[in-house]
Amino acid sequence: APKPAFTNLGRTLSYAEMDELSRRFGAWLQKEAGLKKGDRIAIMMPNLLQYPIAIIGALRAGLTVVNTNPLYTARELEHQLKDSGAQVILLYEGACATLQEVLARTPVRKVITTGIGDMLGFPKGLIANLVVRHVKKMVPAWSLPGSLRFNDVLSRGAALTLDPVEVVPDDIAFLQYTGGTTGVSKGAVLTHRNLVANVLQTEAWMGPSLRDQAGQMVLIGALPLYHIFSLQGCLTFMRLGAHHVLIPNPRDFPGFVRELGKYRFTFFAGVNTLFNALLNTPGFDRLDF
Description:
Number of helices: 10
Order of helices and strands: EEHEHEHEHEHEHEEHEHEHEH
Oligomer: single chain
Strand order of the largest sheet: 7-6-5-3-4-8-9
Structural class: alpha/beta
Distance between the termini: 26 Å
Largest sheet: 7 strands, mixed
Strand content: 15-25%
Helix content: 25-40%
């Protein structure tokens, strides 16, 4: 049976599907966006299925990923896009109005947009996008002429070939921006060697008992993938063949508790404020651990 890799808002993608979709995205980045090894792509979205597809596709194309907080102000976004030299940005609709303000002053030449429901299939995806846009009013009006939709990019990538890229340990995998608590945010350079070493360290730390059941693990991914803690966990658990349940909006605590009730999860990384908020959310005490 196909092994589940990522679940989000009730839709599950297998490892085989992740392989094919990321290949399509990587091929499009090479062939239609014209990106070469070492070029930068910014990704700006909450925890959606589109995120791991894009990260894997970009790394397969030999690119450097610039993780970008979807809550950034226009000033913060402009600084990061200029500083990183990102030529392409993939972002979810809720951040498009922010990008619109600064796009002309950045090196970005291709914009790919996506809706919350874009990977959920019909009719669920359509309904999810309509609710987010018109009921919850979470998408400010925006206009980005010439921008492409993520699903269209994947369709176009289906007919394209992903050329193999030789990546060596010192190549840059991510530019991971700091919080900017002391002045402007700075791009920490993370090489492929850094990330592989940390994955292997995490795996060793887990010990044999956890590693043996890794393939059956269900991981709750509530922390945002644009932060390094969650990203590194994602890479580690992918290596272990675990099933990663992505939570796009953990701040909706009643919705989060409902989602937790659907899975027999084995691993749940969080921070104190998140756990504390869950302890104070009705229904959390009735979950079966």
